[in-house]
Write a structure and sequence with these properties.
This protein is α/β, with parallel strands linked by helices and 190 residues long. The chain has helices at 20-32, 37-50, 53-56, 61-69, 76-81, 93-104, 107-118, 169-183; strands at residues 83-86, 132-133, 136-137, 140-145, 153-155, 160-164. The chain is globular. It catalyses: S-ubiquitinyl-[E2 ubiquitin-conjugating enzyme]-L-cysteine + [acceptor protein]-L-lysine = [E2 ubiquitin-conjugating enzyme]-L-cysteine + N(6)-ubiquitinyl-[acceptor protein]-L-lysine.
Amino acid sequence: MKVVDLKPNGRNLPVTNDNKHEYIQLMSEHKMTNSVRQQIDHFLKGLHEMVPPSLLALFDDKELELLISGLPEIDIEDLKANTEYHNYTSATEQVQWFWKVLTEFSQEQRAWFLQFATGTSRVPVEGFKGLVGMRGPQKFSLHRAFGADRLPSAHTCFNQLDLPEYPSEEVLREKLLQAVSEGHSGFGFA
C-alpha cells in the first residue's frame, strides 16, 4: 500500500463535510491523470511526433474521435435485439415509436443518440451485444420515466435511457431529438 498526498500534508487532514468536494476533485484528478501521468506523457509524445499539437488543438475531443474513427454505421436492428426493457415491453406503443424514430434518424443523429445514451459514439466491434457499462458487459436498457413534459435522460455508466411515456410519436421525436442534439457532448444538461 502506498499513501499519496493529494495536497500538501493531505495524509494528516481529515475529510469532512466542508472539504469533501475538494477531496473528490483531487481524488478524481489523481486517479484519472496523476497516477497514469507517465503513460499519458509517452502516448502524447508519440502522437505529437506524428501530429503537431497545434493541429490537434483545433478540435475538441468529440471532433477528434470522429476524425480518427469516422462516423459509425449504427445498426438499429442490432441495438433493438440487444435491448432490455424496464416498465416497458417491446410491444408498448412508446417503444414502437422510439424504434421508428431512431430508424428515421440520420447516421449523425444516431451517433449523437449513441453518445448521449452510452457515452461513446462507437459501436463495439462485436456489435451491441458487446456494450460495456461500469459493471462489465451491460446491454442497452430502456426505462419508463414519468413526466411527458420532460426530456429523455441517460445514465451512460449503465447504457440506460429513461424515456417518458409521451402521448404521441411526434412528441417523442421532438423530445428525443432535442435531448440528443443538446446533450450528446458529455456531462451536460439539455
